[in-house]
Amino acid sequence: MVKVDDSETSSSAQTAGSAAVPSVTASGDLPSTTITDTPHAEVATTDGSVFTQATRADGWLESVRAFKSSGPAATALSGAAADAVAGLGTAASEVLSSLPPPRREEAWRFTDLNALYKMRFDAGGGARDGATAESLAAAVIDSAAATVIIVDGIYQPQLSTVGAAVGSAGVYVGPLAGYAGDAMGGVLELLTANNCETDVSASVFTALNGAAVAAGTSDVVVVVVPAGSDLKGAPVQVVFSTTPGASKAAATAAFPRLLVHVGDGATVEVVEQHVGASVVTGVGAGALMAATDAADGAHLFSDALTTVQVGKDARVSHTVVNEVPAQAVTLSNVYARAGAGSTYGLTALAATGAIGRVTFGAELLGEGAHVDSTSLCLADGTQVNDLHSRIEHVAPGCTSNQLHKNVAAGRGRAIFAGKVVVAKPAQQTDSKQLCRSLLLSNRAQVDAMPVLLINADDVKCTHGATVSDLNEDEVFYCQSRGLSANDARFLLVKGFAGEIIDRVAYPSIRDRTTALVRSTLDSVDLRDSQFATHSSI
């Protein structure tokens, strides 16, 4: 892999109650790095009026409610599951009163949601003529042990498949309405858990997801892996497909909900994909790119929530991919709780849509737990892609590693805010966090803030952020080996992004994401790339 920039800011902490916040600023060709504890200034909304945004949000929320009441109905629940889902609506009502999240709130300072609040939703706004196996072929992984297809919130049994390996291992993959196994108590606890405890400021949208589920417009997908089961090498795939609307005034909305309950000593790979119907039509990266480029009239909002319970000594690999039309707004919320000796690994790819945000929260609850998080954001044109995370070390002897990369071009904006919290009992914590960003145009922006909050006194923690444009000496060297200027730049950008992409085990997803990297580079005017700028907290 070609390294674009080798500089790194790190911080080691040995003092209880310490907090370190590195802030990166750079312009021109070379980045500079400073560490500051200066309080952040408040930032107004884009149009200078919080009131205007709130007014838009009021009408927007009413539109969401009307859409939910007129959309297709989810599978009916009964018993304890029905009671648990009903409770989601009650819990959501108070939280939704705080909509929209104010731009003065730290977690939303750089993510302008006005484009979302301008949307109005119409259950007939999309061409809802039914997805087919052919239309979803590009999204399906051939080697999957099970594939669950959700279209516009509703489980599609005729498009879903469950292999023999899943049944023989006692694994359940399907809608909550069809599960009645021994782990029901744990599954319902995941459903009703207060995911806001991870403090990643997504409470409004997780509550909105809960309200949609309680209204009966979304089937909850459940993955239950019993203790000792081993599905390594044969992933469980969940595809949430949403039919886009034709305009902002007739957009569509989806509220995907996924619960993953993994027993002690079990191993499983979960692939979670969020797609727009126009994006997955056809097969291969070419079809994806053509559909994405042509999807200017495809409007949808996806508000997803996934909760994962990792049992003692269990191993979970979790891949989250957003492949949506150019005008889509996607909010993906992922929360994981890791037991003693367990390993949870998340790979998140966010490269499409108008606004994309992945909110990741993890709690290391048992001694010796490990969390590994790798993610990539591509921001081109006027895209905004954002990753917020909070990894909380609660138990002693736990480890975590986070690597996030941004590639920004055009007037795109990429945002990273990652927080590692070490509680006082979490002695002998070992945590690493790094954000690396590559800017390809003079109007692109990256905002990066890695944060450590340490309350223990025996830890080893590092964090840092780097930013760079392409090294022209490296470009020249590649050209001297016979590559064109554009191919040389692609080789370098591919090497930078490939460190994340190559962690995905599935060639079709890798190929489509690499094609998006190429598209991002092809859109860059070489004259703009010589003065890349960077905006930081």
Automatic annotation (TrEMBL):
Q: Which InterPro entries match?
A: Fe-S_cluster_assembly_SufBD (IPR055346), SUF_FeS_clus_asmbl_SufBD_core (IPR000825), SUF_FeS_clus_asmbl_SufBD_sf (IPR037284), SUF_FeS_clus_asmbl_SufD (IPR011542)
Q: Which residues form the SUF system FeS cluster assembly SufBD core domain?
A: 249-496
Biological process per Gene Ontology, one example term = iron-sulfur cluster assembly
Where along the chain is composition biased (Polar residues)?
A: 24-37
Q: How far does the signal peptide extend, from start to end residue?
A: none
Annotated region Disordered: the residues are 1-39
Q: Which segments show compositional bias classed as Low complexity?
A: 9-20
Q: What is this protein called?
A: Iron-sulfur cluster assembly SufBD family protein ycf24
State the organism of origin.
Porphyra umbilicalis
Upper taxonomic classification of the species? Eukaryota, Rhodophyta, Bangiophyceae, Bangiales, Bangiaceae
